[in-house]
Design goal:
Radius of gyration: 25 Å
Oligomer: single chain
Bound molecules: inosinic acid
Strand content: 15-25%
Distance between the termini: 69 Å
Structural class: alpha/beta
Length: 493
């Protein structure tokens, strides 16, 4: 007979954190959000903020991965692309060096302005180095910007007739401060850096540099390169993908499977472990048995969550899944028991159903070390989904689930063309601007939660947080009630 658990499972949204005694050194600005992403060679990969972007096409591309690593988190590049594309993105993130760019679009002198216009339209770039052959690592002969030509008259004119040739540049600069000082001295927002014989090495944009100086808590490896992760499936053909990603310098592999408690997953973890010491995050699981299985298989962290992603239909079509609050409580308790038995700490990644700061705080308090989010990150300019206009005329961001027809990621759900059914939908989320403007406020909110709970860091939150389930009426009280929000068109009489 089936075993039936009659206690309902609970969502993160049902819990609130009770205040604890706040010592003086748990002041909001002193609270640390450093966290452990996964084990690595007897230690841990650490992040200064507990964020990971979901391994989803709509969420993580190069821009998101770089931006999130600059802000102290990590981006996970999705498996639903060719091995080549995924590896190229890994190396673009690894090559990005705090404002020093090596991959920007360059022009050849014989291209015509019509070409340039279409590049500007496709990419949004407006400043282009011109090199002898048109490729990046070649002799720089000029700079063309969108201000250097007339887009009606010059369509058939060649780039070399309009480019500026009196280019100001730096020579063999590798230090950020030196590049910054030179840009200030020259009054420029863009600086090409050349080798002694005039070959373009990198370019520096002041706006990128400013970002770097403003965000000193980047996630970096021993060689000061940004951290990046990538997803692999459990399918045997992805063994090659895992090896290629490792060869391209990926810092951590995330196994992308809706159900991680499978023999396939055990075999994939085993394969990766036998061929490298790159850490592997296993998942997804929602039970104590699932956690133990992944840890026995060698996982360096465990991803928790099933059926609770914002656009996920798994629970409706398959009736499998669990409230994320309950999943974290059960797996968190097993993680603690395992640590007591073995002395090994296994970080948990809470994956799915986390779209706002309250859910983030509760997931952390229930034992998560890192928060993996799709919907939340899809809203930022830096996400991979396109901007679009909805029927009401608002600018929104496309967001589609990996189990949707739109994603065409059938392997994630062990499906084929013939037996495909959707486990998620395609839709959109509000566009909220740049991650650089908004994430610092979210970080501040989390710090404030920890301070109120009397905790100085995430470890103390795990150990000391007191959470309470709320009744439906208590939850109503916890939202805005009995007041109509003021809008700009209202006036005091
Ligand atoms: P969100 O942050 O609530 O939008 O959830 C994102 C998470 O949902 C991802 O990290 C995946 O674990 C999961 N996910 C992605 N696509 C699907 C799907 O199509 N069905 C079910 N879960 C999905």
């Amino acid at each position: 007979m089936a075993k039936v658990l009659t206690n309902p499972s609970h969502s993160l949204k049902e819990f609130r954190i009770l205040p604890g005694y706040t010592p003086k050194d748990a002041k909001v600005q002193d609270v640390q959000l450093e966290t452990r992403l996964c084990r690595k060679s007897g230690r841990f990969i650490e992040l200064s903020s507990p964020f990971s972007s979901a391994a989803m096409q709509a969420v993580t591309g190069v821009d998101m991965a770089i931006s999130l690593a600059q802000l102290g988190g990590i981006g996970i590049l999705p498996v639903s692309q060719t091995i080549r594309e995924q590896c190229s993105k890994v190396s673009q993130v690894k090559r990005f060096k705090a404002g020093f760019q090596t991959d920007i679009m360059t022009l050849s002198p014989s291209q015509c302005i019509a070409d340039v216009l279409s590049i500007i339209k496709d990419t949004g770039y407006t400043t282009f180095p011109v090199t002898e052959s048109g490729t990046f690592h070649d002799k720089l002969i000029g700079i063309l910007t969108d201000k250097d030509f007339d887009e009606r008259r010059d369509l058939s004119v060649q780039v070399n007739e309009r480019m500026k040739t009196d280019v100001q540049f730096g020579t063999e600069i590798t230090e950020l401060r030196a590049a910054n000082d030179l840009m200030i001295e020259l009054g420029r927002g863009f600086l090409p850096i050349l080798s002694k014989d005039g070959v373009l090495q990198t370019v520096v944009f002041k706006k990128d540099l400013d970002k770097h100086l403003r965000h000193p808590n980047e996630s970096i490896d021993e060689q000061k390169r940004l951290l990046v992760g990538a997803a692999v499936s459990t399918h045997a053909e992805d063994r090659e993908r895992a090896q290629e990603l490792i060869a391209n310098g990926v810092d951590v592999l995330f196994i992308d499977a809706s159900d991680g408690h499978t023999e396939y997953q055990g075999e994939m973890i085993d394969f990766i472990k036998q061929h490298s010491n790159t850490p592997v995050v296993g998942g997804n699981v929602i039970t104590s048995e699932g956690f133990r299985f992944l840890v026995d298989a060698g996982a360096d962290a465990v991803k928790v969550g099933m059926g609770i992603g914002s656009g996920c239909t798994t629970q409706e079509v398959k009736a499998t899944g669990r409230g994320q609050g309950t999943a974290l409580i059960e797996v968190g308790k097993t993680r603690q028991d395992f640590a007591a038995e073995s002395g090994n700490y296994i970080p948990l990644v809470a994956d799915g159903g986390i779209s706002g700061p309250a859910e983030m705080a509760v997931a952390l308090a229930l034992g998560a070390d890192t928060l993996m989010m799709g919907n939340f990150f899809a809203r930022y300019t830096e996400s991979h989904g396109s901007l679009m206009r909805n029927a009401a005329g608002e600018i929104v961001k496309e967001y589609w689930m990996e189990g949707s027809m739109r994603a065409h990621n059938m392997r994630r759900y062990a499906q084929t063309k013939e037996n495909f059914f959707e486990e998620g939908i395609a839709g959109y989320v509000p566009h909220v601007g740049s991650i650089f403007d908004k994430l610092p406020t979210i970080i501040q909110m989390l710090r404030a939660t920890l301070a109120t709970a009397g905790c100085r860091n995430i470890q103390e939150l795990h150990a000391n947080a007191v959470l309470e389930m709320q009744s439906p009426s208590a939850l109503l009280d916890s939202k805005i009630h009995d007041i109509v929000p003021m809008t700009l068109d209202q006036q005091v009489l």
